Please model this.
Amino acid sequence: MVDFWWARPDLRYVSNRLLLGGHDLAAAAAAAGGPAFFYSGERVLDNLRRLKRALDATGMDSSIRYAMKANRFAPLLTWMKMSGLCGIDACSPAEVRHAVQCGFDTAEISYTATSVSDADLAVLARQPGIWINADSLSMIRRLGRLMPGRSIGIRVNPAMGVGYGDNDLLCYSGDRTSKFGIYREQFTEALELARQAGLTVDGIHFHVGCGYLNAQLDAWGSVLRECRWFLDQLDRPRLVNLGGGLGVPHVATDRPLDLDAWSALIRQNFSGYGVSVWVEPGDYIVKDAGVLMLQVTLAEEKRNTLFYGVDGGFNLAIEPAFYNLPCEPVPAVLNTDVAEAWAPSALKQATIAGNINEALDLFAQNRPLPVMREGDYLALLNAGGYAAAMASNHCMRSPATEHLLLQGVVA
Ligand SMILES: Cc1ncc(COP(=O)(O)O)c(C=O)c1O
Model:
């Protein structure tokens, strides 16, 4: 029996084939032809339900606004809408339009963007139902001119950040001055500007980084404490938006985020205010629900390194190259049974190389893996968030197809 850190009842080998949500991934990839993302609809709902239970445990009124920047595949968004479990956080006019096209009412959409233009604001002005979080003094001034009388949130910057593995690249706030939100020293001016502009500031918003797990929960608790100062400055606070950033395990030593501890921190810090609590996770909802299926195009040793080349590159799943996020490649069909194929003596150190002409286009290096042959299928796990959504056609390589797996159906 091999104990894979990533295995779950809905993601595991059955005899020698990898299944997601009951679907044989290699067979689905062969039918799709070429690089393909597969997303498990059931896993997305499990993630949403687990998060909702944790929010319910705070005893506070709450709302989940899925950050669609993580994954905007229309069938997936429609599936989420049908579940009734979440609204949307959008960060561009195109995302707003897309959310509406996928069935979300504007009252279910919040807008948290940066460096917004007048053209962006003109779109929002036509949608009075959308909740807007302002992230600069300039934005507050312009909101006041375009939409006086509107209730808004202010995105604040507590000058503290959290991110997966304390990776600085994943922190949106911290020692280094960042572009996001309004700092403490400008907050009074922001409130005064809003008052003069005829805007009502009903809430604060903060998003301080991505991928935090249990090791970062203490730091996240300090962020919450710091953000109470901002809430204390409002006349009649109605809501606090905690942003996204909840992480998922990437390596064997990671544990799933302790949602009991997470919700206890929220309760301790905010239940006394009588406010609603909103969260806008992206990755936590979709990342571990998706895999990217690639085919081995090259199995060859160069000097002392065994390369498995694959038919997609960092243009399809950029996070390992961009953020140094660990990537988990898993053969989708084993040449023998699981125990034999994954026996330590059978594994070979291999480097998984993409098909983009850039030296950093390596998904994993010197990873002990079962032997694969050219033509075999490989699954990259945790590809449900910030992969397809950030894809490019660098080197004129085509994007991968996307597919929603439902019970017994591939959409
Ligand atoms: C404002 C805001 N909210 C939510 C998110 C979602 O973050 P995550 O996918 O880490 O939950 C992001 C991501 O960049 C963001 O910028």
About this structure: The pocket of pyridoxal-5'-phosphate is lined by residues 67, 69-70, 89, 112, 207, 210, 243-246, 280-284, 385 (CB under 6 Å).
